[in-house]
Design a protein that fits this description.
heterodimer, A: mainly beta, Immunoglobulin-like, Ferric Hydroxamate Uptake Protein, Chain A, domain 1, 35-stranded mixed beta sheet, 51 strands, elongated, B: alpha+beta, outer membrane lipoprotein receptor (LolB), chain A, 2 domains, twelve-stranded mixed beta sheet, 6 helices, 12 strands, about 25% helix, globular, signal (chain B)
Chain lengths: ~900, ~270
């Protein structure tokens, strides 16, 4: 200890008496009862016990103190106090003197106080925000408030994140009406009806698990002002040309035991309303689903890489009804149903060039598609969330009645395609939790069924050599009938052992899939050759044991995690038309390890390694040929595919907030071993035949990436630069020749973001990508694509803003591959009545098509997509 | 086995540190004006001052809750999300009466920074006025610090040379302190002895030592553009440029309204 540091600077002398008084200097030393020097004791002098302090000093490391005062009074009261000691009081004469003070210990407590009205902002893990405090005059619906709350982000698709994690539940008055489809309430519930928004941090929605299973996720609860609330949103928009409309009517009612939201939305402006019924539910590790699977398709044109509002030619209607009834305490029944009807038109052309080791083949297609979407989905949920038990049973169904019509113009022919692809799926998920003594028993059972009967007709018939001895023929019809049924059951026990919780989980699953396909030629003539038929049955089963472990060091310098799932998987594939069956049994261990180390204040390093097994899906397992599209004929006459993939990743980052300089670099490598190769043979008219061949092969990729950014405080401007370089190598059979396919891609991306003034923001971003592919040492094709965007935001007044943007997309492949766009947007907010008027002028330059080019492993495609014409749209919106 | 690994890791990685124990706790209610141009922009928060022998620790309640969660031995609890969104004041101030210095430590987004400063920041002038606050007889003192003039009321019967924020050096705990414009006003709301002294130790060895100016600058950079800061740290947002610009503008206007720090000059 450095004693010079111990001389307290608090030897402060205070003078507030009249000039001319004699100066008194009182010095001394303080000791405890053991005669040890006491430093840090407070020495105060006042006139008497009731008057205020005249001077004070604090004893130094040697217990010494000195204070000087000017005062007339004859006597003074000296007080010396020290925590844990009785306050020393002595009346002394007002003259300079030296004193020795001995303090005696005291067990007397200091007086405690507590102001009762102290408002705790935080109670448990709940943060409560008053909507009034956050509400701005431009805010309409609750989503406008939510995104202002600390920690909350709303992504463009509407998903809500709290501290970068998706939220778990979206409650209204404690009830979970919408499940994962909360966009409907969030975008339409008027902010005026809401009194508070509660963020339930570390929220465990299942009461039984509350003390056992720690939840890192947050949930949101919307507290309404009134017990019975009626609210909603109405939007009406009109535009030209052609005539555009946009409408949204969403009323809702909330009472203590019943809640309902209904919605009708329609537009032909390219706005994708299906987002309002998008389900953001977090599906924890469920392997099976009843999602729509398509076996057949009409030839599409790839969609442009920007907002759908500029290219989607739609005519959509959406209706949704959601009702929740609280039957009794902790027991809720709810029904969610929605129906979507859409008619989309797609126009474009594609020019495809195939490279084979011996030849190049060109194909030009003008595509005109009509897409009809009819979708009905629903959920019926019964949930009992009590303190000791939990039960949730959810019955869900999906129905699609979709149809596509496609017309393709080629240089010398016209091809019609007609596709019917209805789909039906139903599933039931049951989850039961029960406490038995101090343990918790969990049980899950998921069962589902799907069915689809798809039908593709192509006129005139393709693959003449295969189906009609090389002669042209009128029509081919591919029929597919597919059924799937699964059951997945697991049981686990959660037991607390001191500070640890162990929760081993055992489970088994079983899935049966049936695929029947037939091909018919003109006049309903069936192709009898068994090479063009499938009667496949595919059975997958698995038994598993899972466990995971993670660790974070106390000072947060280390962060480690390890998971060790062990699974026994078994596959059986049979086709009654073929004698041999395919079988595979594997015990798989898929460990994953992740480590992160904080090297210093600004440096971080991380690494991960993992092993993953992938096995064939029925989509790559059928024996007989299937006409998936008008020019794709596929079959997989090979064993069940097995892939073993090793992934390694390492990265280093430097983040210096003082200099506002941020740098990252990472490298990853993956090595995959496969037992199958896919052989494509490409015919002269672009028809593709794909077959699988048993042959061990490998695939490896290296990926390097680096990025940096720097903020210049004086210029209020951020510069960013990203680069990445990918290298991959794989074997491929193309027209029966084994070749090694190499691809390299290099991406450079830069951006500048400047706040030019209070009312003007300007952004620029640009990307250049070079993609090269080739067989062996030979490079085939090099494509360079570029994208540049400039955005200007003018904040004219509090209630107005204007946005101008210009974009350029280009590629080196096509002569006319330059695409320019300009858009203008303006918003005005009326105060009385409260309404927003939004005017947007999209595609000012009236660019009628978007031309893009890309290349795949062995071909490149240049496509043009017809865009929406230059359009003006005005929208009026209010909430109630 | 898991337990063993954990114990080993804790031994090898956990830094042992001097344990500071605190036996008294004072709570303050802080009312502050966020926007210097708007008298109605008053917000409030709770601050907690832990008092020990020769040292003390002050932070907002939100920050204190966060720290105590992070300091639990239970690794599951340590994985808890950051609590620092709960408070506008994310620093912790340690006053050390042996070394006569104070350390302000703050984690700004993910950057752990600290600076050290002389403990004596104010030349107090004791005034003869007395009054009673919460049953304590208190005396007035005045002084100026970082561009603001303060009036403080201290209670000689509470023998601590301490107070909220960086304030200290009066012969008794500061029970109330406010600047003359009343833009920062701390009031004692609770004072209690802790039945069992608590360890509120934090390990600041890993915190990078910077100057006060640098720390204030980093904090300001973050408040000005939190989205940009997060993006630079590798966090990706799935939104469009347009949404991002709008969001940034909103945050910028919020930032501009937060223009009234407690320290106006250094």
């Amino acid at each position: 200890m450095n004693s010079s540091k111990h001389i307290y600077p608090f030897l402060i002398l205070l003078f507030f008496s009249l000039a001319g008084y004699s100066q008194t200097q009182i010095s001394g030393q303080t000791f405890n009862d053991q005669k040890e020097k006491l430093s840090g004791a407070t020495v105060m002098v006042s006139k008497d016990s009731v008057s205020s302090i005249l001077a004070y000093a604090i004893s130094d490391a040697n217990g010494k103190f000195k204070l000087v005062l000017k005062n007339e009074s004859d006597s003074l009261l000296l007080k010396v106090s020290y925590l844990g000691f009785e306050t020393f009081k002595k009346t002394i004469q007002n003259k300079s003197q030296t004193l020795e003070v001995i303090l005696s210990p005291s067990s007397e407590s200091l007086k405690e106080v507590l102001v009762k009205s102290e408002i705790l902002q935080q109670r448990g893990d709940t943060l409560s925000f008053s909507v009034a405090a956050f509400k701005d005059k431009n805010d309409r619906v609750i989503a406008d408030i939510l995104k202002k709350l600390p920690g909350i982000d709303i992504r463009p698709n509407g998903q809500i994140f709290y501290k970068n994690e998706p939220i778990q539940k979206y409650y209204i008055e404690g009830l979970d009406l919408l499940g994962g489809r909360y966009n409907l309430a969030n975008n339409n519930l008027s902010a005026n009806s809401v009194s508070r928004v509660e963020i339930l941090e570390n929220h465990q929605p299942v009461k039984v698990l509350d003390s056992l299973e720690f939840s890192e996720r947050a949930s949101i609860n919307i507290k309404l002002k009134k017990d019975v609330t009626v609210s909603g949103t109405m939007t009406a928009g009109l535009g030209a040309l052609p005539l555009l409309w946009e409408t949204n009517v969403t009323p809702m009612i909330f009472t203590k035991s019943r809640q309902a939201i209904v919605s009708y939305q329609s537009n032909n402006t390219g706005r994708d309303v299906s987002g309002d019924i998008r389900n953001f539910s977090i599906n924890s590790g469920e392997n099976f689903d009843i999602d729509k699977t398509d076996w057949l398709s009409v030839q599409n044109v790839s969609q442009p890489p920007f907002s759908a509002e500029r290219w989607l030619d739609n005519n959509v209607h959406l209706a949704s009804a959601n009702i929740l009834q609280r039957i009794k305490e902790d027991l809720d029944l709810k029904l969610n149903i929605s129906y979507l009807n859409d008619y989309q038109q797609q126009d474009g052309s594609t020019q495809t060039r195939y490279f084979t080791p011996t030849d190049t083949i060109d194909l030009i297609e003008n595509t005109n598609n009509d897409i009809f979407v009819n979708k009905l989905e629903g959920e019926l949920t019964l949930e009992n969330n009590a303190d000791k038990n939990y039960l949730k049973n959810q019955l869900e169904f999906n129905g699609f009645w979709n149809a596509n019509r496609g017309l393709i113009d080629r240089s010398n022919s016209q091809i019609k395609q007609q596709l019917d692809n209805p789909f039906f799926g139903i599933k039931n998920d049951l989850r039961l939790l029960k406490t038995v003594g101090k343990q918790l028993i969990t049980f899950n059972s998921n069962n589902g069924f799907t069915e689809t009967n798809q039908d593709l007709r192509v006129q005139p018939g393709p693959f003449e050599a295969i189906f009609n001895d090389g002669n042209s023929y009128e029509e081919i019809q591919q029929m597919v009938s597919s059924r799937k049924m699964y059951t997945h059951n697991s049981a686990g026990i959660t037991k607390a052992l001191g500070k640890f919780t162990i929760s081993p989980k055992f489970g088994f699953s079983f899935q049966n899939q049936q695929l029947d396909t037939d091909i018919f030629l003109e006049n309903g003539e069936e192709v009898l050759d068994i090479d063009f038929k499938n009667r496949t049955e595919f059975v997958e089963s698995s038994v598993y044991f899972k466990n995971a472990f993670s660790f974070k060091s106390k000072d947060e310098t280390w962060n480690l995690s390890l998971s060790t799932p062990l699974q026994f998987k078994s596959f059986r594939l049979e086709d009654e038309n073929f004698e041999e069956a395919r079988e595979l049994d594997r015990l798989v261990f898929e460990p994953y390890f992740y480590a992160k180390k904080k090297l210093s204040a600004f440096w971080d390093a991380q690494a991960s390694a993992g092993l993953v097994y992938d096995f064939g899906e029925l989509q790559q397992l059928y024996y007989g040929f299937l006409l998936n599209g008008y020019r794709n004929l596929n079959r997989y006459n090979a064993p069940i595919s097995e892939e073993t993939r090793q992934n390694y990743n390492g990265g280093l980052s430097y983040r210096n907030p003082l200099k506002q300089l941020f740098l990252n670099a990472s490298y990853s490598y993956s090595y995959t071993e496969k037992n199958l190769l896919y052989s494509s043979s490409i015919g002269e008219n672009g028809t593709t035949l794909l077959e699988a061949v048993a042959r061990d092969n490998s695939f490896d990729t290296h990926k390097f990436s680096a990025d940096g950014s720097k903020y210049f405080r004086k210029l209020k401007t951020t510069f960013k630069l990203n680069t990445s370089y990918n290298l991959s190598k794989q074997q491929q059979l193309l027209n029966n020749t084994l070749t090694e396919l190499n691809t390299r891609s290099f991406t450079l991306r830069g951006s500048v973001d400047a706040e030019l003034s209070n009312w003007l923001n300007a952004n620029y971003s640009g990307t250049v990508v070079t993609y090269t592919s080739g067989f062996g040492e030979r490079d085939f094709q090099k494509i360079e694509t570029q994208q540049h965007t400039v955005d200007l935001y003018f904040y004219l007044k509090e209630n107005q803003y204007l946005n101008v943007s210009g974009e350029y997309y280009g590629n080196s492949l096509s002569e006319n591959g330059n695409n320019y766009f300009m858009n203008l947007g303006y918003q005005f907010t009326f105060q009385k009545p409260k309404m927003d008027l939004n005017i947007s002028w999209r595609n000012i330059l009236n660019t009628d098509e978007f031309i893009n080019a890309y290349n795949n492993q062995y071909y490149y495609v240049q496509s043009s997509y017809r865009l929406r014409p230059s359009q003006l749209l005005a929208t009026l919106r209010f909430s109630f | 086995m898991r337990k063993l690994i954990l114990v080993l890791l804790l031994f090898s990685l956990g830094n042992l540190q001097a344990q500071n124990s605190y036996s008294y706790k004072a709570s303050y209610r802080l009312e502050y004006q966020v926007d210097s141009t708007d008298r109605n922009s008053i917000k409030s928060e709770t601050g907690v001052l832990y008092l020990g022998e020769g040292h003390s620790r002050y932070s907002s309640l939100g920050q204190a809750v966060k720290d105590s969660l992070e300091n639990m031995i239970d690794p599951v609890m340590m994985r808890m999300d950051e609590y620092n969104q709960m408070t506008d004041f994310k620093y912790t101030i340690f006053k050390d009466y042996q070394d006569n210095e104070l350390i302000l430590a703050e984690k700004i987004f993910q950057y752990e920074l600290k600076y050290t400063q002389d403990l004596k920041i104010i030349d107090w002038e004791i005034q003869p006025e007395n009054k009673e606050i919460l049953g304590f007889s208190v005396q007035k003192a005045t002084g100026s610090f970082a561009g603001r003039n303060y009036v403080a009321w201290f209670a000689p019967e509470l023998p601590f040379l301490d107070g909220p924020y960086k304030f200290s050096g009066l012969p008794g705990l500061i029970v109330e302190i406010s600047d003359l414009k009343n833009q920062y006003h701390f009031r004692l709301t609770g004072f209690q002895e802790l039945k069992t002294p608590v360890n509120k130790s934090l390990n600041f060895d890993n915190y990078k030592t910077v100057s006060q100016q640098e720390l204030d600058q980093v904090r300001d950079d973050y408040n000005r553009d939190p989205i940009g800061t997060m993006q630079k740290a590798g966090i990706k947002f799935g939104w469009s440029e347009e949404d991002e610009a709008r969001q940034k503008k909103e945050l910028t206007s919020k930032y501009k309204k937060r223009n009234n720090p407690i320290e106006l000059q250094q």
